[in-house]
Amino acid sequence: MKRGPISTGTATISAIGMAAVLTLVVAGVLLVPGEGAPDAGPARPLSALPVEVVAGYGDGGSADAPAIRISGGECAINLTACRIYLIDPKGVLYEVNAAILKNATLGAGQAAYVFHFPVDDRPASGYWITDEPGMVFSAAYHPGVHPFSPGGQWRIVVYDPGSMKNRVDQVLLITGPASPA
Fold first, then answer.
1. Torsion-angle region of residue 46: left (phi > 0), alpha (psi -120 to 50) or beta?
2. Between β-strands 165-174 and 93-95, what pairing exists: parallel, antiparallel or unpaired?
3. Under a CB-based contact definition with an 8 Å cutoff, are residues 174 and 86 in contact?
4. What percent of the chain stands above pLDDT 70?
5. What is the pTM of this model?
6. Is it the case that residue 44 has pLDDT exceeding 50?
7. What residues have CB less than 8 Å from 148, skipping those under 6 apart?
8. Which of 59, 70, 166, 173 could form a disulfide with 144 if both were Cys (CB 3.0 to 4.6 A apart)?
9. Can you tell me the distance from the alpha carbon of 171 to that of 40, in angstroms, rounded to the nearest whole number?
10. pLDDT greater than 70 at residue 55
């Protein structure tokens, strides 16, 4: 009996069937029962740099206005090249603008502060980053920092476009303005 050439439909179905069988065989050989994935080590925090809430000099002389301190680490980052964002408890995204940055590169033993100081300029979000402690802890540059509003879980993200990674990605509990009595 003489047979004709195989159809492309039959060839395609046969190729898919063989690929499926080979995939199952390879998966069965690689995933030996009782073996787990290799231990990845201890869980790492999402922030490469230490971040904490500190009390700044508030408008009107109070010493309890919250600010965020980012402490420098072994791997220095250029704060002017990074994009810095805050996300409030309601999910609203704010871009953090640069205030005074005497040293744009945040390294070991240095700190930068994110604080709230609203301005009339609409393009500015009212959230600023500085490495000048006087902007956060005194009235040397302005009457005082304002509380983050609303209070709750705030997320800070420092994205480094050079490495295409978040250098900081952390959620912090920040209390908002006090309720009127």
1. alpha
2. unpaired
3. no
4. 80
5. 0.69
6. no
7. 66, 86, 88, 116, 154, 174, 176
8. 59
9. 24
10. yes
75-81 mean pLDDT? 89
Residue found under tokens 């502060």: 113
Go through the chain and tell me how many residues it has. 181
Rounded Cα–Cα distance for residues 63 and 26 (Å):
64
Contacts of 63 (CB under 8 A, 6+ apart): 55, 56, 57
User: CB of 113 within 8 A of CB of 136?
Assistant: yes
Q: How far apart (Å, rounded) are the C-alpha atoms in residues 167 and 160?
A: 6
Q: Please provide the DSSP assignment of 69-104 as one string.
A: EEE--SS-EETTTSEEEEE-TT--EEEPEE---SSS
In angstroms, what CA-CA distances link 165 with 2, 46, 157? Answer: 64, 10, 10
